[in-house]
């Protein structure tokens, strides 16, 4: 369980995260959503310890990461997998070598077992055929899948994803979403996904946190997001024409249901 | 007063940079997470930074050696000086300054910019963040193999440069006869001090450390995009050149003075 208490982050006097208190559901897909510049990525980077918060607590199973020594943070990070916005695969290594890298660095298994594990992870993301290719030779969607395979190689307890769908077509986005959701369920991982894509939110979001100008405005499940009474959340969700139409269709259906009930 | 403020700011910024460099080097010098991975990267870097520089060193050393002998032969045409002086002076220039200092200035352009741009690109594409998230000491993993490989291979490049510089002079003597080959060979052997070769090798290893570590520092601290990577690469070459020249001045005074 990850718990955040009174988290504040300032950059040169400008408050980017303002007193955030929340918790992330264990073994579920937690999504942090919000407009560009709302502080989502800074929040994610605080969670993984890449940015030191100005004040507040981030507790992993009760242990506060902001007070840990460098060695403890390093140990905790071996329980984390991260999917970066641009995939961040190592250019000089093949896809298989990229997936093997965390195993080569930290696993006590022998070379054959490490390779077997890497091949299993690649198979899990349907990328076995691209094992010997370099990142420059594969598509954006394949890069994301390779990065997911690398992130799960060491069996992490937490998976962090920064805008996993950026730059991908809708079909590939859906594939990546499903992959994150399946992996979360199959391996019992706690996933935290930063996104501004409402399709992703509705596809896989179990627990949704909405940030607006560094403030946590709303938190709840995807079933409640369409009926939420938060004005800023509604502005964000219904900025898309598709979701506006869904809302209109929903209200028409519920009105006709109500009139049918009255007639009945 | 107003003109003093920017100067104070630049001094503070320089001191901050020195502090950051020292802190980075502290992380670089930590024991590697995995020795096996370190040696794998080390051997790759020996090839990339060292072996791939051999052709550049060979070509430049040969031609500059030839030009040094030609210039000295033309400018030291005094009846008061013996002709083997050309060989003596060429040898001293090549052994003491050209093969170590000048060659390192040239290599800082090739190797330094390569290191700064490679690490800078890794920074802006979040590859360094990815290493940190995995719990890898990214500074040690990325920089240590480069620094140690370049320092390790430097004596080979310097020895090659010395040999080819003197050989370039030999070829000039062979074709022009000024001075005759036998006089040139007598000159390069005359009052030869082996310690000059070792001094030059030690100097070049220090410069190799400066080139690799300073360039890595500039790459590692890049923030932004491709423009900043380009700027880091250029800045690293400029600062490397200044530091190598300053170190040469100090080293020459300490050892030869």
TrEMBL record, chain B:
UniProt keyword Membrane present: yes
**What keywords are annotated for this sequence in UniProt?**
Membrane, Transmembrane, Transmembrane helix
Q: Which GO terms describe its molecular function?
A: phospholipid transporter activity
The GO cellular component terms are: ATP-binding cassette (ABC) transporter complex
Give the source's domain of life in one word: Bacteria
Transmembrane feature ranges = 54-81, 93-112, 150-175, 196-218, 238-256
| Keyword Membrane in annotation | yes
Record's protein name: Putative ABC transporter permease protein RBE_1340
- What organism does the record attribute this protein to? Petrimonas mucosa
């Amino acid at each position: 369980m990850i718990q955040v208490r009174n988290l504040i982050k300032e950059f040169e006097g400008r408050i980017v995260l303002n007193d955030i208190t929340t918790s992330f559901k264990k073994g579920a897909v937690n999504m942090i959503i919000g407009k560009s510049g709302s502080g989502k990525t800074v929040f994610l980077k605080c969670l993984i310890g890449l940015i030191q918060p100005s004040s507040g607590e981030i507790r992993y199973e009760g242990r506060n990461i902001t007070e840990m020594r460098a060695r403890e943070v390093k140990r905790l990070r071996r329980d984390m997998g991260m999917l970066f916005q641009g995939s961040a695969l190592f250019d000089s290594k093949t896809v298989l070598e990229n997936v093997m890298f965390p195993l080569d660095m930290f696993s006590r298994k022998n070379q054959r077992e490490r390779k077997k594990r890497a091949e299993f992870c690649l198979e899990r993301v349907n990328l076995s055929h691209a094992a010997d290719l370099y990142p420059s030779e594969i598509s954006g969607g394949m890069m994301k899948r390779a990065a997911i395979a690398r992130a799960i190689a060491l069996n992490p307890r937490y998976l962090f994803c920064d805008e996993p769908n950026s730059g991908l077509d809708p079909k590939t986005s859906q594939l990546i979403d499903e992959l994150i959701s399946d992996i979360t369920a199959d391996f019992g991982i706690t996933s935290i996904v930063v996104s501004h894509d409402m399709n992703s939110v509705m596809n896989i979001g179990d627990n949704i946190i909405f940030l607006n100008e560094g403030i946590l405005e709303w938190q709840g499940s995807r079933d409640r997001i369409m009926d939420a009474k938060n004005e800023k959340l509604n502005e964000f969700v219904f900025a898309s024409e598709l979701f506006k139409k869904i809302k209109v269709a929903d209200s028409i259906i519920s009105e006709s249901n109500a009139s049918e009930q009255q007639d009945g | 007063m107003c003109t003093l403020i920017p100067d104070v700011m630049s001094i503070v910024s320089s001191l901050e940079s020195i502090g950051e460099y020292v802190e980075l080097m502290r992380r670089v010098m930590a024991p590697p997470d995995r020795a096996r991975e370190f040696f794998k990267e080390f051997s790759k870097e020996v090839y990339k930074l060292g072996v791939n520089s051999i052709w550049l060193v060979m070509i430049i050393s040969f031609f500059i050696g030839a030009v040094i002998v030609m210039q000295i032969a033309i400018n030291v045409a005094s009846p008061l000086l013996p002709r083997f002086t050309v060989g003596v002076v060429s040898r001293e220039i090549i052994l003491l300054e050209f093969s170590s200092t000048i060659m390192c200035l040239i290599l800082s352009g090739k190797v330094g910019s390569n290191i700064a741009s490679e690490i800078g690109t890794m920074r802006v594409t979040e590859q360094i963040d990815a290493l940190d998230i995995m719990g890898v000491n990214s500074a040690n993993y990325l920089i240590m193999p480069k620094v140690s490989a370049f320092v390790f291979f430097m004596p080979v490049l310097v020895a090659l440069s010395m040999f080819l510089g003197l050989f370039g002079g030999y070829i000039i003597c062979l074709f022009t006869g000024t001075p005759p080959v036998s006089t040139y060979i007598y000159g390069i052997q005359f009052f030869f001090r082996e310690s000059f070769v070792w001094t030059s090798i030690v100097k070049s290893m220090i410069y190799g450390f400066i080139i690799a570590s300073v360039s890595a520092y500039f790459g590692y601290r890049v923030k932004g995009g491709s423009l900043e990577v380009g700027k880091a690469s250029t800045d690293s070459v400029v600062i490397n050149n200044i530091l190598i020249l300053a170190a040469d001045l100090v080293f020459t005074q300490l050892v030869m003075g």
